[in-house]
Design a protein that fits this description.
Blueprint lengths: L4 H4 L5 E8 L5 H20 L2 E6 L5 E8 L2 H8 L9 E6 L17
Antiparallel strand pairs: 1-3, 1-4, 2-3
Length: 109
Amino acid sequence: MADSFEELFPAQLHAFMVEFDVPLLTEEIVALIPKQRLTVGMLMSAGTLLNYTLSADRRKLWAVVLGKSVKNVEEELQKFPLTPLMHYRIHELMFHEAATAGISRMSLN
C-alpha cells in the first residue's frame, strides 16, 4: 500500500510559490533584465512558469512554478540570470487558481 501522495502519483507536478527578495538596482542587475525577461517568456511558453509578479516598490518578486519537487524547482530557478543575485524562499502550494488573461479564442463560426 502506498504511504504518500508522491507514491500514488509519482509524476504529478506540484505548484510552488517562489518569493524573491530583490536587491537594489545596480548596473549589473539592469544589464541582466533583458535576459531575465526572455527566460520568463520561454518558461511561460513551456508551461513551467505560471505567474511572475513584481511589487510596485521593486523589492519583492513572486513566481508560481510547476515542478516535481523543491529540488526540481530550484533547478528551474537557476535558468533565471538574476537568481544568483537574489535570496528566495520556495513554498509548496496546496493549489493555485488564476484567471486566464490574453487573447480570446477565435470562433470558427
